[in-house]
Amino acid sequence: MNSVEPLLEGFRRFQQDYFSPEHNLYESLRHGQSPATLVIGCCDSRVHPPALMSSQPGEMFVVRNVANLVPPYDAGNLHASVAAALEFAVLNLQVERIIVMGHAGCGGIRALMQRSTPQDSALTRWLDIAAPARDFVYRRYGHEDEAQRLRRCEQAAIMVSLDNLLSYPWLAQKVAAGELVLDGWFFDLNDGALWGYDAAGQAFVPLVCPLQPRQTAAA
Length: 219
Description:
Layout: H1 5-19, H2 26-29, E1 37-42, H3 49-52, E2 60-65, H4 81-92, E3 97-103, H5 107-114, H6 122-127, H7 131-141, H8 146-165, H9 169-176, E4 181-188, E5 193-198, E6 203-208
Parallel strand pairs: 1-2, 1-3, 3-4
Antiparallel strand pairs: 4-5, 5-6
């Protein structure tokens, strides 16, 4: 069993960084939060939105789940975790931007594409939210290889979630009034690049390009 000490040591560093007399960020945060951005990200341990954007505590409201999915609006859903978080972020915290952030190498999307999860399992039912993305990719890009289709589905699933966001009436009203902006981002953990969906071109375009390869020292 892994030792808990590295976790405790990590908390001690956090404590020193944010609760010391010199850097007591929580002096103000203990009174409440007012993040401007909601990020809906994947629960993949390699994709941590605050770390990716160097965000400080209190700056970002984050919802994470398998494959960064947003279910469509359903007024009768009694246990709607994502819907509850959306409602709190949009109506209570008054966030100004929602980013649906997918990533390369997503295990959830791979399972969706390969139909590898147990039938009628909770995971299968959850991933079915993105079934339209899978169907679209196989219909239009069935001739491509598996790796290409996976990447396309990872990005198409972001679009499904963006569409589903607009199915929430109170959220759509905010977007129509110009009070809320929706973005689709794709983190390529293979090369460190960040892509964003361009609605005009209907394609993902680079927002932050990969770092240039390091130059080797001359002999």
